[in-house]
Write a structure and sequence with these properties.
The complex is a heterodimer. By secondary structure, chain A is an alpha/beta fold. Chain A has ten helices and ten strands. Chain B has a single domain, classed as MetI-like (MetI-like fold). The chains are: A alpha/beta, B mainly alpha.
Chain lengths: ~280, ~270
């Protein structure tokens, strides 16, 4: 079974270390969410996994054959119609033009873009429609690994919920492995099988949280409850720079909704003795 | 082929939209007529006389060979400049080092007056086609080079990352990513260069050649023939207007359709 595996991965821009000792494994068909404050190196980690940055330290093994990437912004080519934009990755794969366009059409319809919208240029669409197009451009490749960099962060909650649904339906049908990055804890709880909380400066994985309940079976109540419980955890609060709770927090959150969540505290978010400058 | 069809089918609507431009040109003619009426035909013949003389020149067949010679020289120089300027400019724009090195050189080229190049060219190439062609080339090259360089430099690096993530092959990167973006910088540069090429070629011919519109202007000057001089000037300007507004502008509109739609939307 293919797998994305990072071990001991670190990265530095010039003298500034942004990632340190990252360990993670993503098997096929799982959704892994990396949650952390802005600037903690999440995007760098994703770009490393996507091969857009050269690995500096550690090892990275990507066993997936067809990875696709969704960026924080839609990043559609402004001079191509939405239809051609969705077909871009297929065209790059050397697939005949009419086949590309037919598949783009089908995928466009799946994400809720009608013919009129597909014929327009990206600038003529609203932000939400552009995000749909970007999602379709990634999904039309039928990836076995989907890397997502806060793709829904600029959308309102209604649109966000719709796109979550589209993503989960596609994921359930095709068993795609998803590595998503977000600073929105609730989004992570809604979508992910496994949640990794990152601490910043330099970015490390500080906390792991597994959810047993399938994402499609989670309702709003479960998501709200679990998010609230996660936010009780001292480690998570430190990572996001929240002040400690007045009442002594439970070391690990209570298991939510009838034993569906398991918690692993990976390491203390405070850096090992001898290294100074810990700030989350 | 699509581009050609769009160009031809767009011409009627485009011509219709030109009434405003024609109206303002007629205002200019009216001002010319006014000045001619005040100062008399010796200083400035009126437009009717100038255009009458132009029609005569065409009817007698004297105008065509001169215009063709001038057009040949201007387009040869311009074609060379477009080819070299676009390619070198793009190449320089892709590399940061090359663009930093090229900028001061291009500034020097831009700052050197064409008349200085003309003097050098007359010494190097003599009285043949070489002198005007070279002068046109050297006057147009930096303009196009800068356009291409800016185009290649300003491409959004987010889109480059996207292209890398979707594994676009080099050919697709060129045609789907670089060229559409660069064209919106190149086209205005080409149009500017076209105007420059006509101005410079006439100047070069006036001083160095025995044929072409520039030479004809020199002859009419020595004969103090204001009507003929104005007729030749009108011929050059009208040719330039025709090429720019009938050929380049419609093509530019088609190529940059996405940008216009964007503007309407905003």
């Amino acid at each position: 079974m293919p797998e994305l595996k990072l071990s001991g991965v670190g990265h530095a821009y010039a003298l500034k270390t942004v990632l340190e000792e990252i360990e993670l494994a993503l098997p096929a068909g799982r959704i892994l969410a990396l949650v952390g404050p802005s600037g903690c190196g999440k995007t760098t980690l994703l770009h490393l996994a996507a091969g857009l940055l050269t690995l500096q330290t550690g090892t990275l093994h990507n066993g997936f054959a067809r990875p696709a990437l969704m960026f924080q912004q839609p990043r559609l080519l402004p001079w191509k119609s939405v239809r051609d934009n969705i077909a871009l990755g297929l065209k790059a794969g050397g697939i005949a033009r009419h086949e590309c366009l037919a598949r783009a059409q089908t995928m466009g319809a799946t994400v809720g873009l009608d013919n009129a919208a597909l014929d327009q240029f990206p600038h003529q669409l609203s932000g939400g429609m552009q995000s749909r197009a970007a999602l379709a451009r990634a999904l039309v490749l039928e990836p076995d690994l989907l890397l997502m960099d806060e793709p829904f962060s600029a959308l309102d909650i209604g649109l966000k919920a719709q796109l979550h649904r589209l993503l989960l339906d596609h994921q359930a049908a095709r068993k795609v492995a998803v590595l998503m990055i977000t600073h929105d804890l609730m989004e992570a709880v809604r979508l992910a099988d496994t949640l990794l909380v990152m601490a910043g400066a330099p970015g490390r994985i500080a906390y792991r949280f597994d959810l047993a309940l399938p994402a499609l079976a989670r309702d709003d109540g479960f998501v709200h409850r679990t998010t609230a419980e996660l936010l009780q955890a001292g480690v998570v609060r430190t990572c996001f720079g929240l002040t400690a709770l007045a009442t002594a927090p439970a070391a690990t959150p209570k298991v939510g909704a009838g034993g569906t969540a398991r918690v692993f505290e990976i390491a203390n978010p405070a850096r090992p003795a001898g290294k100074k400058g810990f700030a989350c | 082929m699509n581009l050609l069809r769009a160009w031809i089918s767009g011409i009627p609507a485009y011509l219709w939209s030109g009434w405003g431009a024609i109206a303002s040109l007629f205002l200019l003619l009216a001002a010319w007529e006014g000045v001619a009426a005040v100062y008399g035909a010796l200083i400035l013949p009126d437009p009717a006389a100038a255009f009458g003389r132009l029609a005569e020149l065409f009817a007698s067949g004297a105008a065509w060979p001169e215009l063709a010679t001038t057009a040949r020289r201007a387009s040869a120089g311009l074609a060379l400049a477009i080819l070299a300027g676009s390619l070198l400019g793009l190449a320089a724009g892709v590399s940061l080092t090359a663009s930093m090195m090229a900028r001061p050189i291009v500034t020097v080229l831009l700052g050197t007056p064409p008349i200085a190049w003309l003097v050098l060219a007359m010494l190097w190439f003599g009285a043949g086609d070489g002198t005007p062609v070279f002068t046109v080339f050297i006057a147009c090259f930096p303009v196009i080079f800068i356009g291409a360089l800016q185009g290649a430099r300003t491409l959004d690096h987010q889109l480059k990352d996207m292209a890398a993530a979707f594994r676009l092959p080099p050919r697709m990167k060129l045609f789907d990513l670089y060229l559409p973006h660069v064209v919106s910088y190149l086209f205005p540069a080409w149009i500017t260069a076209l105007g420059t090429s006509w101005k410079v070629v006439v100047m070069a011919e006036l001083l160095s050649s025995s044929d072409g519109v520039g030479a004809a202007l020199a002859v009419s000057r020595s004969h103090l023939d204001m009507e003929a001089a104005l007729a030749w000037i009108a011929a050059v300007v009208l040719t330039l207007l025709a090429v720019e507004y009938l050929l380049l502008e419609p093509v530019k509109r088609e190529v940059e359709r996405w940008r216009d739609l964007d503007r309407e939307h905003a």
